[in-house]
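Regression report. Comparing outputs from two consecutive submissions.

Submission 1:
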Amino acid sequence: MNLLDLISGSTLPLVLIGSEKGAGKTVTLNRLRAEARQAGLTAFGLMTAGWDGESRDHLTGKEKPRVTAYPDDLVLTAANCLTSAEARFELLWSDSISTPMGRMVLGRCKRSGYVELVAPPSGRQMAEAVARMQTEGVTRTLIDGAADRRTHIGITEDVEVGLVFRPLEKESIEAFTRRVSRTTELFGLDLATDAPPVKPHPHQIALHTQGGWRLLNASTFESDFATHQGETAWIGGPLTERLLQALPKRGVTHIVVRDPSRFFISETLVKRSTKRGLYFHLQHRPRLRFVAARCDGGTNRSLPPFDTLDSLRNALPGVPCFDPWLLDPIDRATHGRTR
């Protein structure tokens, strides 16, 4: 397995999700795209779930990694970012809805250079953009995702996910490995089989009662829990801690969530709830493609990269693990044992 395999082995959109802001999503995207370019692969789609590629963060002022577009890449961003980019583009499409940075546009890169990526206002528009890029024949769409895993996986049912982690302050290799492992366990949950006839909207819950399926409002679910009792609940929106506390009061033992991005509770709480007799299932299970670890995470947040990667690979058999900052992040034999 090498980095080129991670990006060339599939045509599905690849969403990069970070454990926090500054975890290394954009660096991971750049590294994968650079490996593909070195191998002669072209025409990738580039987009973001936020705002990426600027030289400094617009909120914190901290320096950020740039995003480079290469010839034949397709870029989704706001019009002002496309026209001010160092790269040069052919305009392919423009949205009718304006944003503070101008209309959302899709451009084909004609000359390499930096470009800022800005996300469309809604998940629906992100899904439409992914479909449009695929229609234009991109090799693969790379999405610089959210600063946590809670959003933008579910823009389309067929996606792959790369998780990007950075050590916490004074976190040990063992603790870091446990934290990463608990997150990845959500991608291994069983798929639900007993589906309601109508899928709940984001503000609804489908409850399986003795009289059949009932659609209930999630916002009032806790206050009127005595009205209906059921064993299985399909959650249309996020599973929050407050909702998790209310579900057992209805007799619910099986909770179905759209995908791992909809767990707005900690992995530790999921594990505790499972021990108390709750069962969690997924409507859709995106493929976990890899785990990237930013081992050099800054002051009091750094871990020895090769020992850390060894620990992750032992804990996550079958999941490629690498550090995108290393010269050869897959094959340690060229580096020696520790660093």
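Submission 2:
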Amino acid sequence: MTRLGKVAAILLLIVILLPMSYFGTSEPVFCRSCHYIDPYVDSWASSSHQEVKCLFCHEARGPFGKVNSKSRGLNYVAMHITGNYTTAIKGWADERNCIACHLNDVTKYPDAPNLKEIPGHLDYIAPPTQEGALCISCHAETGHALGLGLD
């Protein structure tokens, strides 16, 4: 095989393996294998968001958000393997994911309640939002219950 052929084969392998590894490591069963979040995953499984995978909420939007979450994930794996950690990680959700989904900008979830169709809701949330309130200020337990021992 020529040098160009080897490079092409490696690139093709990367193009195939990266998306597979991304999706394979984005399932709740994978997340709970290191994060010790069983109560949260169990709570999520019975919530209205049970079809929404962990990273849809817990990852920044865009390709660099994916790179960021997976690089943090590699760090968590290294800490898990070496036992070199002292505190639990704190959950985080990207507010833009809530807004995109609930303005029906996300084709994967076409049945998500649309904020534009809930009478008065946009008028109701505009003032607190302009003052810095987040969706989770009122909807903290939407994706899963909180206060399960890890918050």
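Expected: both submissions complete independently.
Actual: both completed, but the second showed a warning that disappeared on reload.
Relevant detail on submission 2: Residues 4 and 10 are 10 Å apart (CA to CA).
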